[in-house]
Amino acid sequence: MSAEQVSGLCEQLVKAVTVIMDPASTQRYRLEALKFCEEFKEKCPICVPCGLKLAEKTQTAIVRHFGLQILEHVVK
């Protein structure tokens, strides 16, 4: 996958994590975002580049934590 595809997918993941953690989000949107994140971790072949990009210090703490969770999932 190209760098643009990785960046695009990372942007979607950041939005999904933001929806999950936002107290103003509806339950339906949270579940959809959680499903997207879980499917990404289970099926996506570019977990490592996305996990590294999300774990960068330029991201928020919650997004960095999710990036590290992705990397941990790949290792296991």
UniProtKB/TrEMBL annotation:
GO cellular component, one term: RNA nuclear export complex
Biological processes annotated in GO: protein export from nucleus; RNA export from nucleus
MF-aspect GO terms: nuclear export signal receptor activity; RNA binding
Cross-referenced InterPro entries: ARM-like, ARM-type_fold, XPO1/5
Superkingdom per UniProt: Eukaryota
The protein's name in its UniProt record: Exportin 5
Origin species: Zonotrichia albicollis
